[in-house]
Write a structure and sequence with these properties.
Blueprint: E1 13-17, H1 22-37, E2 41-48, H2 53-65, E3 70-75, H3 89-99, H4 104-109, E4 117-121, H5 125-131, E5 139-143, H6 147-166, E6 177-181, E7 184-187, H7 201-213, E8 218-221, H8 225-236, E9 247-249, H9 265-268, E10 275-279, H10 288-301, E11 304-308, H11 322-326, H12 328-334, E12 338-341, H13 347-351, E13 356-361, H14 365-374, E14 378-380, H15 387-396, E15 400-402, H16 416-428, H17 430-445, H18 451-454
Parallel strand pairs: 1-2, 1-4, 2-3, 4-5, 5-8, 8-9, 10-11, 10-13, 11-12, 13-14, 14-15
Antiparallel strand pairs: 6-7
The structure holds uridine-5'-diphosphate (UDP) (2 copies).
């Protein structure tokens, strides 16, 4: 007798639980688009209110571009900001989202067709993964940084315990080296700086998220073989930590059509590979003093430039005109040498433009992957958070330069002369171009392994 086969079609239906900040939303949008293009239903949960205009604008554009996606809103419970010592509005928002995690299961319980999997952003994993166990669904975590950073994160509870048992003061030493194994050695100077204060919320959440990573069904990461071959192999080979769920590379995540901006005619008029693009992502602002030095450095580099200036961390507070920030005199000097803007730009559109030949970046992971996808060499200038760890990937893959002596954004002002010299070096060194073209080819070939989620 032939075996009975259940032929009832199961429509995969994945709920994506996002957090806050464009560096987290952008990969969530792109993952949702990838799933939709693979005949999967998607429910997309956003949180309300958002911190920045960039977030609310992009959520609206995303949902209009994908009417087939089911949108749900998690209305955040109000938080008392005085209960934490942190002032960063994005950190506070992640905390507010975590405190509203119990509202999620009721929001998703009646999904139709029934959900088949959940994908939770790493920032909210510590509370969202436990809060959704009653839904009895496979739960994947979307990790929005590098595989190198993931290696560090999953080892962090052990690192912290070792540091705690040895330390003689309240602070972690900033000049030590953490030896995880022979191919993963991380100087403490590369640690995300909030980790130096073990009792603060960032630190406790970081460790809690790390523990939660071990309990999920898989970790989706916006990286790929050709970019982080060794780290991915080590993670999946059990060399970093035993018992880690599968790390599934889904990068480089492709941009969606709705992200396209109006185009910049100024760029169209420039020669191939002649322009350096300068941007520090969606939530890094610079001191006025550093902005001044950077502007002069760009002029000294003798390279044409497209510079996105950011004066405030949150765009809603960033109301002044670009001239007020860089100075009228500077705008006078720039003339046809460059373009300075103070708006949201279509970064992928810029990086993929034939005229762009270099990228001065803070090394937010999305920016690094986008530059790799477009074959653009980078001058890594990490400003904070996971960016030094990401810069090690840029450096070790030969995708550009990293001047380690340039401190974190609050430590020192890097002088114009030095900035100009390094930009010149970036633009003329053929080795970076050769390496980035090679990695771009690898990026084009990379498999986006969403099979586990939708089968
Ligand atoms: N981005 C953009 N236009 C801007 C600023 C940022 O499209 O004017 C995008 C960028 O392409 C990337 C994301 O916002 O996808 C920023 O993420 P990243 O990890 O690079 O840095 P973060 O903003 O999280 O520090
Ligand atoms: N991270 C984490 N849990 C936390 C805080 C941070 O896992 O509670 C990791 C995560 O990989 C994140 C990185 O540390 O991408 C850097 O954190 P940051 O606060 O700078 O946020 P991001 O730059 O990713 O927006």
């Amino acid at each position: 007798m032939s075996k009975l086969i259940d032929t009832k079609p199961v429509i995969p239906h994945v709920a994506i639980l996002t957090s806050s900040g464009m560096g987290h939303l952008q990969p969530s949008f792109r993952l949702a688009a990838l799933l939709v293009n693979n005949n999967c239903r998607v429910t997309f949960v956003t949180t309300h209110p958002t911190v920045s205009l960039a977030e609310s604008n992009s959520i609206s554009s995303f949902l209009s571009a994908f009417p087939q996606i089911i949108s749900k809103t998690l209305n955040l419970l109000p938080m008392d900001p005085t209960t934490t010592k942190m002032t960063d509005p994005f950190f506070l928002q992640w905390d507010a989202i975590r405190h509203s995690s119990h509202l999620l299961s009721p929001l998703l319980a009646s999904s139709s067709p029934p959900l088949t999997a959940l994908v939770t952003d790493v920032m909210i994993a510590s509370t969202f993964v436990p809060a959704t166990t009653d839904l009895t669904l496979p739960n994947y975590i979307l990790f929005t940084s590098s595989a190198k950073m993931l290696s560090f994160l999953v080892c962090y509870p052990t690192i912290l315990a070792a540091i705690e048992s040895n330390k003689k003061s309240d602070h972690i030493l900033s000049d030590a080296t953490i030896h995880i194994n022979d191919s993963l050695i991380i100087p403490t100077s590369c640690f995300p700086p909030p980790l130096f204060y073990p009792k603060q919320l960032f630190n406790t959440q970081f460790a809690a998220n790390a523990k939660q990573m071990m309990r999920c069904d898989g970790i989706l990461i916006n990286s790929f073989e050709g970019l982080e071959t060794e780290s991915l192999e080590q993670l999946n080979g059990g060399n970093i930590i035993n018992g880690l769920p599968p790390v599934i590379p889904i990068g480089p995540l492709s941009p969606c059509d709705f992200e396209q901006g109006p185009g910049l005619s100024w760029l169209d008029n420039q020669l191939d590979n002649s322009v350096v693009y300068v941007s520090f992502g969606s939530r890094t602002s610079m001191s006025r003093e550093q902005i001044l030095e950077l502007g002069n450095g760009l002029l000294k580099s003798g390279t044409k430039f497209l510079w996105v200036v950011k004066d405030k961390k949150v765009d809603k507070d960033d109301n002044g005109g670009v001239e007020e920030v860089v100075g009228y005199e500077f705008i006078e000097k720039v003339k046809d040498k460059g373009l300075v803007v103070k708006t949201w730009v279509d970064q992928i559109g810029i990086l993929s433009h034939r005229a762009v030949g270099g990228f001065v970046t803070h090394c937010g992971w999305n920016s690094v992957v986008e530059a790799a996808l477009c074959g653009v060499p980078m001058l890594a200038w990490p400003q904070g958070s996971d960016q030094r760890i990401n810069a090690t990937v840029v450096e070790s893959r030969g995708l550009g330069l990293w001047v380690k002596s340039w401190g974190w954004s609050w430590e020192e002002v890097v002088k114009a002369e030095e900035i100009g010299n390094k930009i010149r070096e970036l633009m003329i060194d053929e080795r970076f171009k050769i390496r980035t073209v090679h990695v771009k080819e690898e990026a084009m070939k990379a498999d986006k392994n969403v099979g586990d989620l939708i089968n």
